[in-house]
Write a structure and sequence with these properties.
Structural class: alpha+beta
CATH class of the largest domain: Alpha Beta
Oligomer: single chain
Largest sheet: 5 strands, mixed
Number of domains: 2
Radius of gyration: 32 Å
CATH superfamily of the largest domain: OmpA-like domain
Low-confidence stretches: 70-92, 277-318
Number of strands: 9
Helix content: 25-40%
Strand content: 5-15%
Mean pLDDT: 76
Order of helices and strands: HHHEEHHEEHEHEEHHEE
Strand order of the largest sheet: 3-4-7-5-6
Amino acid sequence: MADLGNQPPIIRIVKKGGHGGHHGGAWKVAFADFMTAMLALFIVLWVLNQSEDVKRGVGGYFRDPLGRALLGKGPEHYQDSGKDNVLGPKLVAVPSIFKRLATTQADLEREANRLKEIIEQNPALTELGDQISVEVTKEGIRIEISENDKSTIFELGSSRLTPRLISALEVLAHEFSKTRAPVVIEGHTDSKPYTSASGMSNWELSTQRANEARKVLEGSGLPSEQVFMIRGYADRDPIADDPADPRNRRISMLLMSSQGLEMSLGTMTENEARQPGYDVEATPAETESGQVVEEIKPVLEFSEPVPSTIDVATREKH
């Protein structure tokens, strides 16, 4: 026992770990999963509270995120119970914004007559004289404003519109907004080559002119969702025998019919559109497999119908 008292004391040093460490990154992954789940929950709650049009739009985006159906290049088959069932060539869904649009030949002629009466009564349109025309085509009602030897509607070699054309478009925008028809705006040039340091050609010039017309129309009351597309034709679609004729420099605005809309979407060919027996309210088609497919048919409604009093000329386009 005495020896124990003479032994040196044993000193034990215990080092306690600090609490400043980050404890790894596992908590970050868990927190990220939690936030993702909450975001998904809020999106679902938001969608459930929206209208049917919004729900169809959101669903359509996830089914076709690249918008191929809008261009008429969508999938040509549907998935059903895990099997591919070919339902027929080019069955493309019409965009939901135009699903309720439709028309008949009588509707087109009635609306064309109404526009002609507006042109005869409104000073901004009457001033254009024979530079403005209204025609019924297989695509719909085409309103064209062109140049001539004495009067221009564009600044020379530019996409800028003249005040006369702007005033006319402002009136037409108000009239177009009364309809529910999708609007196509087209630009045309003559065959004279466009020379520019930027390398721009008549293709770009015609497209820019159509886009400038769109800006004026939308700024004057035409709903932006009513604009279906703009097109630039350069000098490829002349209305005069001479490709260099100034009348070829023009702006075309098309109030699309059911056939015109389907042709743009790729669900109808020009030959089918010429068939007199084509029914825009066709019944559902039955495929070879026996499956019935209800094709979506667009519907067009014109407001404020005017009795038909003026014969409307028709012409083949393209």
